[in-house]
Amino acid sequence: xxxxxxxxxxxxxxxxxxxxxxxxxxxxxxxxxxxxxxxxxxxxxxxxxxxxxxxxxxxxxxxxxxxxxxxxxxxxxxxxxxxxxxxxxxxxxxxxxxxxxxxxxxxxxxxxxxxxxxxxxxxxxxxxxxxxxxxxxxxxxxxxxxxxxxxxxxxxxxxxxxxxxxxxxxxxxxxxxxxxxxxxxxxxxxxxxxxxxxxxxxxxxxxxxxxxxxxxxxxxxxxxxxxxxxxxxxxxxxxxxxxxxxxxxxxxxxxxxxxxxxxxxxxxxxxxxxxxxxxxxxxxxxxxxxxxxxxxxxxxxxxxxxxxxxxxxxxxxxxxxxxxxxxxxxxxxxxxxxxxxxxxxxxxxxxxxxxxxxxxxxxxxxxxxxxxxxxxxxxxxxxxxxxxxxxxxxxxxxxxxxxxxxxxxxxxxxxxxxxxxxxxxxxxxxxxxxxxxxxxxxxxxxxxxxxxxxxxxxxxxxxxxxxxxxxxxxxxxxxxxxxxxxxxxxxxxxxxxxxxxxxxxxxxxxxxxxxxxxxxxxxxxxxxxxxxxxxxxxxxxxxxxxxxxxxxxxxxxxxxxxxxxxxxxxxxxxxxxxxxxxxxxxxxxxxxxxxxxxxxxxxxxxxx
Length: 608
Hints:
Number of domains: 2
Shape: globular
Oligomer: single chain
CATH superfamily of the largest domain: Sodium/glucose cotransporter
CATH architecture of the largest domain: Up-down Bundle
Structural class: mainly alpha
Strand order of the largest sheet: 1-2
Number of strands: 6
Mean pLDDT: 79
Largest sheet: 2 strands, antiparallel
Radius of gyration: 25 Å
Distance between the termini: 52 Å
Low-confidence stretches: 354-392, 599-608
CATH topology of the largest domain: Sodium/glucose cotransporter
């Protein structure tokens, strides 16, 4: 049995499991569609939330970022995990006690305004669409590699599958599907890491291997020392050193943290359990399940970096393993022989600036028309290739995307075929699980918060679910388009934009709505509008309108600008509230009540 057949078997079995679960747990009411009936156990919800949380950006892209960026990639690890702690401590226990099914639902009631609800719906759509396009891109990358098709065809295939079990099953179907997806992801992520750790370091625990010795060869040396040495030898910065400015690193990490605490598709997961106590237990389980993958990601990134250099640098193209040519076919990896010596050279910026390129030019430059042909051949990396060649000082001949490193790692390490097949199933599970959760938030924001609460209050339950499914289809079609034409080919970067939008809109508005009675209707609305407008405008300018890096505000990239947008939201809300009428007494009493422990005074934890 060949690798391709085994991949299809593993993925086919996992798909069959997801679809059977979704059909058997199909939602029959709005309560089941939005919150799975509110009776999910903390253990199951913790697993489902972890699957919802660990998106394609985590599973596929984060370890690739660690492999390429080294220390700088810790911004994702610190931001996303730290943000989940903020979410579980500052947000979900209080929102669960408030008993609202969606984030716009809370904002509409807390800020006593249909306009506030409408603005929150728009923010939710912006955030979820930006996030889901990264997930659909991840689906496209995996399907492209598996089936030897283009990324657009892969995105469309994945979209159809997501619609079957998310659009039909609602939260009830998604929850139990995500439990199965988490199990697939956890095994798919950790098993290859264990194999590679044993091969490179002799440790069965990958994390100990990362801080242990590199045992390949005659002399054992600390693994990170070995990694730093091969990086600097090839002209890259030390793996353990930071390249981002302190300001930018801080802003990106803070935007990811605060954005995490404002993500509507994660918040809504905690409405599927029966009470506040179950919310806290569910959060503990979720953190434990997330840790399994997040503590493994740095090891996978570091190991794949060593394997990449060991297997490809200075290797004759005629002798490269067959897997490299498979990745070439789909445009995920490419080699351009700039010096016509038939060997693959992989060099960093230091080699370029030191004049090494003149040694390799050999037979003269590659002319612009030849540049264009090569760019078309290697697909998504074409623009970067043209830019590098225009510089004429770059000796690097190897091109690949960050998002392919996790998928390529077991091939580079020569792992058993069943391990590779399991990893492929895990990659798809990661992208589909989060895409389903985001799709649900998009559909419920439109059907419940827009149609039911604003436009057509007399909707029946059946009509509301129908509108939700129609909205799912439309949202998925739009997400598929942006998955094919994303703002960045790098999945984690695209997803980071969504966190910036959440940090600048929902996080401050929810935090102020829960913990202070000073913020009124006008302040809450103005803060959301100013925060998300500033952040989205900054992202659009630099990603679509040609803004250059030297124009960055204080050197902050679009990934981190959500932190500044958040500060603008806070400042605007407090200033406008100070100049306008105070909140009504009944709203102030409602805010005070959700701070009281369940069973004390008037506070009761009622079912939604």
